[in-house]
Amino acid sequence: MIWKVALPMYNLSPRLQQAWEGLLGALLDRLDLHAEVELVRSPPLPGFWQRPDMLLSQTCGYPYMTLLRDQVTLVATPSFDFPGCAGSDYSSVIVTRAGGGIAVLADARGGVAAVNDTHSNSGMNVLRHAVAPLARDGAFFERVTWSGSHAASLRLVREGDADIAAIDCVTYGYIKEEDPASLEGLAVLGYSAASPGLPLVAGKAVPAELLARLRAGLIKPAPEVARYMHDLHILAFEHRADADYRRIIQIEAEACAAGYPLLS
Fold this sequence. Notes:
This protein is α/β, with parallel strands linked by helices and 264 residues long.
């Protein structure tokens, strides 16, 4: 079998894509796996994560908990050095337009939210949780615009087509480094509740011995792997238990308990 690999979640610029692919290549070289592996760029999601020949990829914690737990195995979760990260936990940056009349979250009542995806923990789940205590009769926003990406959500807020968005703090940190002009005119309201970050996962068909080698190659990285980790602001990789990711479902449950099951 030729295994398939992809790390598509943070390829926000050509430099970042090259660095993520470099990290993956260095890991595969260290484990002498290159001849058995094919890199897939821009894989269709979530279908790629469900392939029987998927060796290694990265997913969001929300689809992991709601869709993928029986089909993938947690390998390791990166710890980043961006604001909003604490170990391998992360949060979202809640942003609005500077001077747009929104100084605190309650000021966004009746406005428009830009959200990347219905299955996003960082864009949807934690924003729903943040505004749930402020909702009335199950509603808070006038409208939710589904943007397709965090970068698109930022653009909608910046250009006045939306009033607020929650952006994965790693994505925000990368964009601030790669394209700082795209954040001009935006203001940070605060940070969302924290939860475990985007895990690297292996398919269920990956043998236990190979899974252990992949995990060890990330948690105890060789110098060539560590070099790419430094370029990507990754301090370390940690093996997180499945139970840790229940925090994401708890965030959802707390919003539902407040009478706010749907972001609206």
